Amino acid sequence: MLLESKMKPLSAIFLALMLSACGDSETNIYAQDVAEPGHEDHDHGDEDDHDHDHDEETSAARLLLVEDGSEMVHIFEAGDGDEVSELSLPAPIGYAYPVPGYRYAAFVHRDDNWVSFVDGGVWVEDHGDHDHPYAEAPAIQDFYLDGVKPTHYTFNDEQVAVFYDGNSETGDVAGVATFDTAAVADNGMANTLMFDTYMHGAAQVRGEHLLATIRDADSASILPDQVGLYHLHDTEYELETVFAETCPGLHGSAQNEDHIFFGCTDGVLVIDEGADFSAAKVANGSALTEGTRVGSLRAHHHIDEAIGIVSGKLVRVVPGQAELQALPEPLHEEDSVVASDFAAGGEFFVALTSEGSLVVLDSHDWEIHGELNVTDASVLAEGQSLKLVVPPTGHHVYVVNPGAQSLVEVDIEALAAEEPWSLEFTPSAAVWLGYTGEDEEHDHGHDH
Questions:
Q1: CATH no. for residue 192?
Q2: Where are any strands of DSSP class E within 80-225?
Q3: How far apart are CA 339 and CA 429, in angstroms?
Q4: Which of 315, 251, 325, 324 is closest to 284 using CA atoms?
Q5: What is the pLDDT of residues 90-135, one digit of tens each?
Q6: What residue numbers bound the domain in which 153 lies?
Q7: 131-135 and 60-67 beta bridge pairing
Q8: Is 337 helix (H, G, I), strand (E, B) or coil?
Q9: What's the Cα-to-Cα distance from 410 to each of 141, 232, 258, 348, rounded to whole Å?
């Protein structure tokens, strides 16, 4: 049901923020106690009468794994692999991502024009002299988004942007919805931008500003070739300027502390917010072979440059440089990168290869910290691929192998893998939710 009192009428064919829970959603909680990690059960009404002894590095986390081809999400304790519960969402799930703060997860149902959200049940409250962690039963949120072909999901430490491609066959236009954790928690409003045509585009939200792609409606390509700067007014974005520097065949975006990056056929468009959103191009140069381009980007709040993914290889995008920079030590020629991201608060960059190896690079000098074979990629069936799950802090990442129905935890500093978890279903996507006592700022661009 749509609650009209909370809707901003934008278009009969575009984004609507749906504000009621799905009637066919199910939650199955297994027979086990769900309590605060590291605490005995107690009456919160008498909380002030209890002394609290909290470890500064207290952490609690859960892994949410999607069962392939289904609406099912299985929730496990990250520490011991115990399954806490399973949730049935409104439609089959394509992709899974964290919401800033890592209490909530977003699940993209692209074919069903839907994005739903789940509370992982683990979070922390600031009680002044200590942080108080909680662990409760996971739950499906009332907040969800309804728009045509949600595709690219990008986020920083506070906000999320979801780009909707629209549909060329039906005439549905593209658009963007942005929101924060409070909107998910309180069933609030999303901010929206509606275009005049469809496109396979991208968007990055920066406070009250949004950088989003622009496509000529008469173009033969579904990919845009320009970027616009938008400013938020009430709950809608209005165009302020279109950058003169073009970005042909635009695909892939990311952001860090000062810069926003967009992948182009002729290089990477870099927009400097500190210089009043000035734009410049870092050309492909000799780092790329003819006919290749940056199609995906990764960036981190604490790292000045970005990493571009080029046909399964990696290049550095250094703002202010004329050309893209090759990494000092290339990956194996016969191997390609299937997933990658910054890890350990930006200390490392991890690249999962098609052969099942994890390559760890030191992001301070881009030397290879080490490489570890973590899973058998030969068991993957056609259409399956390895998945990489990277928590915002800490030195552990997770590799999901759908072919082996397994998940393995890897210490990227020590280059050591734990015994794999054996799953009773085929996982297709996964997301880490939880709390650590460290800084969680992390800026991502996720491209499908």
A1: 2.140.10.20
A2: 83-88, 95-98, 104-109, 114-119, 122-126, 131-135, 139-146, 150-155, 159-164, 175-180, 191-194, 203-206, 209-214
A3: 12
A4: 324
A5: 999 999 999 999 999 999 999 999 999 999 999 988 888 887 888 8
A6: 4-39+55-446
A7: unpaired
A8: strand
A9: 31, 41, 31, 13
266 lies in some domain: yes
What the block records as the tokens of 258 is: 């000062």
Q: Are 202 and 163 in contact (CB under 8 A)?
A: yes
Q: Tokens 């074979």 map to which residue?
A: 373
In this structure, is residue 298 part of a structural domain? yes
Q: Tell me the per-residue pLDDT of 72-91, one tens digit each, with 9 for 90 and over.
A: 999 999 999 999 999 999 99
Amino acid at 167: N
Classify residue 45: in a domain, yes or no. no
Among 106, 187, 107, 175, CA closest to 147: 175
Q: How far is CA 411 from CA 374, 415, 416, in A?
A: 11, 5, 5
Strand-by-strand arrangement of the 104-109 sheet? 16-18, 139-146, 114-119, 104-109, 95-98
Closest CA to 407 of 109, 29, 76, 97: 76
346: left (phi over 0), alpha (psi -120 to 50) or beta: left
Is there a domain that residue 300 lies in? Answer: yes
Domain count for the chain: 1
